[in-house]
Amino acid sequence: MFKTKSPEETAAKEAQKERERAERERQQYLSTPVGQAEVAFNNGDQVFQYAHDVASQQAVIVAMVGSTTTKQTTDPSDILNAVCKQGWEVVNGSFVFVEQGSQSRDKFMSSGQNIAVKGTTVGYYLFRRCEANRGA
Predict the structure, then answer these.
(1) From CA 15, how far away is CA 74, in angstroms rounded?
(2) Mean pLDDT score, 82-93
(3) Which residues contact 124 (CB under 8 A, 6 or more apart)?
(4) CB-count burial class (<10 Å; 0-12, 13-18, 19+) for 48
(5) Which is nearest to 125 in space by CA: 21, 45, 18, 48?
(6) Residue 13: predicted pLDDT
(7) Structure confidence by residue, pLDDT tens digits, 5-41
(8) 73 assigned to some structural domain
(9) Is residue 13 part of a domain?
(10) Structural domain tally of the chain?
């Protein structure tokens, strides 16, 4: 025979599922730069650093034609603004190209080589605590 659940049992089970879903979402949020900024602020940290891949390029070598690269870019402005709203102020931003490899091939019917570089440009952002920006 089937035992039907009481409305209280059903409500309790639904409430537990909702708490678990909310906790998963909270953990996902805390793994983001904005979540990490919130934790750092609540811990009383004076500085916070965030790194973001702002551009990546892939090496493309085409036989008998030459070399080129394909590029993808992302804009970190939304993330940077959200971090500032957690009580931080941007102090410095710098960019570094991190080479991840290259491809080369001898030029067709001439001397020299075609070279294409693969890598990513990383933006490093340093923030200092700014109480006035908290919740702005």
Answers:
(1) 39
(2) 96
(3) 49, 50, 51, 93, 94, 95, 96
(4) buried
(5) 48
(6) 87
(7) 788 888 888 888 999 999 999 999 999 999 999 999 9
(8) yes
(9) no
(10) 1
Strand, coil or helix: 99: strand
Contacts (Cβ under 8 Å, ≥6 apart) of 121: 53, 54, 55, 56, 95, 96, 97, 98
Tell me 17's DSSP state.
Answer: H
| Domain-located, residue 96 | yes
Dist. CA 96–CA 118, nearest whole Å: 14
On the question of pLDDT at 102 being above 80, the answer is no
H/E stretch holding 113 reads strand 113-129
Within a domain: 21:
no
Question: How many angstroms separate the CA atoms of 81 and 39, rounded?
Answer: 16
Give the lowest-confidence range in 5-14, 34-43, 74-83, 89-98: 5-14
The pair of structure tokens assigned to 116 is 């294409």
